[in-house]
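Protocol step 4 of 6: structure prediction from sequence.
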Amino acid sequence: MKKAAAYIRVSTEEQTEFSPASQIRKINEFARANGYVLPDEFIFRDEGISGKSAEKRPEFMRMIACAKTKPRPFDAIIVWKFSRFARNREDSIVYKSMLRKQCGIEVISVSEQLSPDKSSVLMEAIYEAMDEFYSLNLAEEVKRGMNEKFISGGAISQPPFGYKMHNGIFSPDENAETVRKIFNDFINGNSYRKIAGELNICGIRTSKGNAFGSRSIEYILTNPVYTGKLRRNGGEKTRFYENAEIRDGMHEPIITDEIFSRAQERRKMIKNLYPPYQRSEPAEYMLKGLVQCSDCGAVLCLQSRYGSIQCNSYAKGKCRISHSIKLEKINKIILEKITGDMGDIIIDINIRKKKSAQQDSPEFFRDLIRKERKKLLRIEEAYESGIDTLEEYGTKKHEILEKIKHFENRLCETPEENKPSPDRHIKISLSEILYGDFPERIKNIVLRCIIKNIIFDRRRNDIKIFYKS
């Protein structure tokens, strides 16, 4: 008796006519009626996956790999309709031809059976063309519907962190306060990494349940959805949707336009101070990230053992010329050149009183305690309904109570916020900063404000400073 494989695919749960159960039932009936045995290990299922691309269907690709093994594992692949096998004519022709010529395996449709004569070639081509037309037309209709929804202010994507979906519109959830905290912390001077680390310590996770990282924080800070807007990709894909199309949404904003604008201003400032691939952590030496190799353009990095800086690419074996120079020596040269070029200019510094970080405020810890108590109610309901065992309930309850205790202790240690003092202005000369006892990170920030880059040429023993215009 001949062996057969079955391939079952559904794109969405709404396709009840082509549900997995109905497909396998029809395929089993066809196999028995036509003398095929259908072993369970040769039933391949892709559920909730489009048929437009074979590579994105794991079970389909596993079936093809199985078909190529020797000796031949089965004699035919049975599907409910040819559209289940593929909705792309190219994929359909390539895989059917390969199966037929290289493996001796036919693809058979239960509902679209072909006659044994040469007219079957024409009919199969017609079926394939109709399936591809249906797929393309459906995609066009879906795209048109999404476009109309976007224009009218309706959500066309999954809700971002801080929102949930309610009647097709984003609605603030329990993480909305955390979003406000992220924006406020960033505006008040905290780095992406520091914000992410503090959220992770508090047990807060992204909408996908992952730990926060610098990139996820920056993504939130660049998302205009939090101001009541909607966005979608406006053409070429970019890292943070720089070319996105923005429209007013129907959802409630979490932050104001003013706060969002201030966050973008600080992000732009960081981007200008720290070019691509340069970290924005506090500098441990004044010239960090500013001096570049004349041969390969790489940044010269600190060699702590020798008290010098060296071409980063040379240290990795990618640059032929060593550009090592004592830090004390190049510092002296650079300072003399800058003061000679610019004179002893006066800098007007606006010192803002840093607000108490919101994560250190009493209200922040009260909010965390409220969230944990809500979790207690949910795990109690899960235990009472039989979802969790007594042991699981006890473990989860212990973890939550420990968190509540920790947050309550932090709350007791946290004083109520005082009224912030007004901003101060001071005037100071450039030489006072660069030659004074200011921290290296302050000197580095000052230099980044006036210097674009510094090129060190070891062959000529020459140093050139390029100032910002």
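Step 5 (inspection) to follow. The chain is about 45% helix and 15% strand.
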